[in-house]
Amino acid sequence: MIQSKEDYIYYLEADRLSLGKTEKTPPFFGDEIWKFERLLRKIEYYKNCKTGFFSNVYLFFLKWKFHNLSVKLGYHIDSNVCGPGLALHWHLVGIHGAAKIGANCLIQSGVNIGTKAGESSFVPKIGDNVYIGPGAKIFGDITIADGIAIGANAVVNKSFLEPGISIGGIPAKKISDKGSEGLVIKGTELADALL
């Protein structure tokens, strides 16, 4: 969670590197996903670190802008949910506001991370360096260990505590010992080396 200006800068840099960007800022036209992630981090910074009338007015403006971009991209992602090094792919990603996602997670299109029906307080906790394939559904009071790769269209409704494995299927089960190595860019490690 962003708790200072230094955290804010670190999250921006880790996200940029996880997205594989070489430029320091997004281009004026295009690259809405990167702009979305930067706006998410700015909201987290203002929400967690800034107080006062003008900061609150600016935060309201940022949230309005964020809502519009979320609708355009098909995202539903709340602030203070995703760790540094987030890499999103285009369209239809929904993450419950109480879920916790670790560092360097790559989330493909069509992913839904939420709760079982009627259990709004039981949400997933996802570790670091996790790859989540297109169309995966992850729900319930479960834990996903570090370095796991979740296959396309998997339905994950139980915990997987063994790190560095691949899971897939409906319902999900262990399918290999490969894990997410080579699938995610570890933006936090790259940012640590640069900052």
Written account of the structure:
This protein has 195 residues and is an alpha/beta fold. The protein has a single domain (5-176), classed as UDP N-Acetylglucosamine Acyltransferase, domain 1 (3 Solenoid). It has 4 helices and 14 strands. The two termini are 18 Å apart. The model has no long low-confidence stretch (mean pLDDT 94).
Shape from CA axes? globular
Helix content: 25-40%
- What name does CATH use for the topology? UDP N-Acetylglucosamine Acyltransferase, domain 1
Radius of gyration: 16 Å
- CATH superfamily caption: Hexapeptide repeat proteins
Architecture, according to CATH?
Answer: 3 Solenoid
Oligomer: single chain
* Helix segment tally: 4
**N-to-C SSE string, H for helix and E for strand:** HHHEEEEEEEEEEEEEEH
Provide the domain count: 1
Biggest β-sheet strands, sense, barrel: 6 strands, mixed
> How many strand segments?
14
Mean pLDDT: 94
Summarize the structure.
By secondary structure, the protein is of the alpha/beta class. Helices cover 31% and strands 18% of the residues.
Features:
UDP N-Acetylglucosamine Acyltransferase, domain 1, 6-stranded mixed sheet, 4 helices, single chain, globular, alpha/beta, 195 residues, 5-stranded parallel sheet
